[in-house]
Amino acid sequence: MPIDGLRLGVLAAVLGLGCISFARADAPLSAIDWLSQSLISNAPPPGLTEPAVSPLGLHTETVTVQSLQADSADGLGILPPAVTGLPRNLWGNGDVAEIARLLLQDNGQDLPALQTELLTILLAISDPPQGALAGEILFLARVDKLLAIGALDQARALLDTAGAARSPEIFRRYFDVALLIGDEDRACQALKTAPGLAPALPTRVFCLARAGDFDTAKLTLDTARVLGTVSAEEGALLTRFMEPELDDTGITPIMPTPVTPLIFRIYEAIGEPLPDTALPVAFSYADLSENAGWKAQLEAVERLSRMGSVTPNLLLGLYTQQKPAASGGVWDRVAAFQAFDAAISAKDQMAIEATLPLAWAKMKEASLEVPFAALFSQDLASLALSEATKPVALQVMLLSRQYEALTQRFAPKDPQQAFLLAVARGSLQGVSAPDALDAAIAAAFTAPVLPATLQAMLDQGRIGQAILAAMTQMRQGKAGDLRAVTEGLSTLRHLGLEDVARRSALQLILLERRL
After folding, report:
1. Do the beta carbons of residue 190 and residue 164 sit within 8 Å?
2. How far is CA 101 from the centre of its chain?
3. 454 in any annotated domain
4. Which of 199, 258, 322, 510 has a 20 to 30 Å separation from 13 between CA atoms?
5. What is the pTM of this model?
6. Which residue, of 199, 221, 256, is where some domain finishes?
7. Distance (Å, whole) CA 202 – CA 212
8. Dmax of the chain from CA atoms?
9. For the CA atoms of 328, 334, 340, 341, what is the dihedral angle to 10 degrees?
10. Phi, psi (deg, nearest 5) at residue 146
11. Sign of the dihedral defined by the CA atoms of residues 310, 313, 315, 321, in that order
């Protein structure tokens, strides 16, 4: 029976259909461009108002209502000051937009020590910046940064403190995190129970189909087609998602740009999974699922481990899951890792010394030295190793979180080892610096320099911004700006982040990476 005009109007209202597409031009902007446009929103962005207009067309006085800071999402977190070591008034009177910009800058494959501290800041419970309007700009920036580095478990924990239905922008991120983690039903249930959130067409069809309500999903899509609010390609993709035999259009779905988590899951569901190696790192999380092949799981955990977004134990578990059935690339790394792990488990010192050099070389090849050090440094420290093995073992221990304690009994064999051990102990007076980078590091411990810009931040209580700015300087140092190395390390030490400063200095020397 054809759908008449009245039924179309009613259905459009009931089903929430409007001019919808996979990439709405009027959707709220995000710091990352691959968020799913999962909701319909015609509301202006937070903080923007328009002059009120009376029924006669006369402009009336605009009344602005400022929420209390207690209502702000910007101070939400999961780690209290007693855990983070950071003050509750972390942001002082800083500007919210400037803090968000510092958080969201692309730091690529950062020094692991900086990445760990950044994660702490992102998850910290803190007061919103003084004088800032109650809002969620800083909260969303923190979530977006977690998404950008693939820290989805942490992002979901942070989003849970706010609640999925707190605002449309928070829900969008909640929905996408659930999709990438593989918890689609939880995302759809949150939408179903969220008052005032109107799902966009793809979201509605996706959730209806996930719930097994294919009749309503098909009616929703048919109505959108009649209303002309869905393109032929979108309609074909959604039809194939619901039930492949219903797709009689003959149109092959095209992959949109950018790929969103919702599109990613729909393509997976229709049997045409999209390769995630060319997608942002957060998409790699999907390959940690047991439904993915072992090679895909290995590549995903390596990618996420390099970003510091998953625990070393996850790498250990996947690396030792089964025996490699091929050679080359990741298989050679797995084989070398397994041989060393077996030697450690057997406490076979001869086997340990025989397998360590290759295992370490393979970890360096994949930029996984720090996770490897976290897993095996204490085992190596307990052994009386031969002189031939000690240099590699020393590097492993210096890249661990227990770098100072584990290397106490080491006697340096050359100037570079002497310098590294001095950094680990935080005492560089009278120690020679073998090269220019070492000299820049030594200066931060013997003649620290605090830039005027960072001192001004500290004078205004903007401790969090000063930490982020120091991290930026350290990245500049990785790119060859040696003065920035001295200033960045000096600032971290001045702020009491001695452990972060020492680990960063050791990693600058040992990881030998540049941006």
Report:
1. yes
2. 16
3. yes
4. 258
5. 0.87
6. 199
7. 15
8. 91
9. -170
10. -60, -40
11. negative
Closest of 119, 112, 107 to residue 399, by C-alpha: 112
Secondary structure (3-state) at 503: helix
**Cα separation of 403 and 321, whole Å?**
29
Burial of 78 (0-12, 13-18, 19+ CB in 10 A): middle
Closest CA to 44 of 29, 59, 24: 29
Tokens standing for 157? 């924990």
Please answer whether residues 174 and 36 qualify as being in contact, where contact means their C-beta atoms are separated by less than 8 angstroms.
Answer: no
Q: Is the pLDDT of residue 423 over 90?
A: yes
pLDDT at 272: 84
**CB-based contacts of 280, cutoff 8 Å, min separation 6:** 32, 34, 147, 148, 150
Compute the CA torsion angle 311, 315, 318, 322 (nearest 10 deg).
-140
In one-letter notation, the amino acid at residue 362 is K
Say if strands 198-199 and 59-60 run parallel, antiparallel, or are unpaired: unpaired
Pairing assessment for the beta strands 39-40 and 198-199 based on DSSP bridges: antiparallel
Q: How far apart are CA 33 and CA 257, in angstroms?
A: 10
Provide the CA 453 distance to its chain's centre, in angstroms: 28
For the chain, give the mean pLDDT. Answer: 85
Q: Which run of H or of E encompasses 39?
A: strand 39-40
Q: Determine which of 50-54, 300-304, 454-458 has the lowest per-residue pLDDT on average.
A: 50-54
Q: Which of 3-12, 112-121, 234-243, 276-285 has the lowest mean pLDDT?
A: 3-12
Residue 442: predicted pLDDT? 97
Residue 401 covered by a domain: no
* Token pair of 424 as six digits: 């680990």
Q: Residue 82 domain-assigned?
A: yes
Q: What is the mean pLDDT of the segment spanning 102-112?
A: 86
**What pLDDT, on the 0 to 100 scale, is given for residue 240?**
85
User: Which tokens hold the place of 313?
Assistant: 């134990």
Going by C-alpha positions, the residue among 167, 164, 162, 161 that lies closest to residue 176 is: 164
Instruction: Specify whether the CB–CB gap between 238 and 202 falls below 8 A.
Output: yes
pLDDT level of residue 108 (50, 70, 90 thresholds): confident
Closest to 333 in 3D by CA, of 377, 368, 384: 368
Give residue 495's domain range. Answer: 421-510
H/E stretch holding 104 reads helix 96-104
Which of these three, 199, 224, 247, is where a domain ends? 199
> Could you give phi then psi for residue 36, rounded to 5 degrees?
-65, 140
**pLDDT over threshold 60, residue 153:** yes
Q: How many domains are contained in the chain?
A: 2
In a domain, 81, yes or no: yes
**How far apart are the C-alpha atoms of 216 and 212, rounded to whole Å?**
9
Under 8 Å between Cβ of 314 and 295: no
pLDDT tens column, 476-513: 887 888 999 999 999 999 999 999 999 999 999 999 75
In sequence order, which ranges of 105-231 are alpha helices (DSSP H)?
112-123, 137-148, 152-162, 168-181, 184-192, 201-210, 214-227
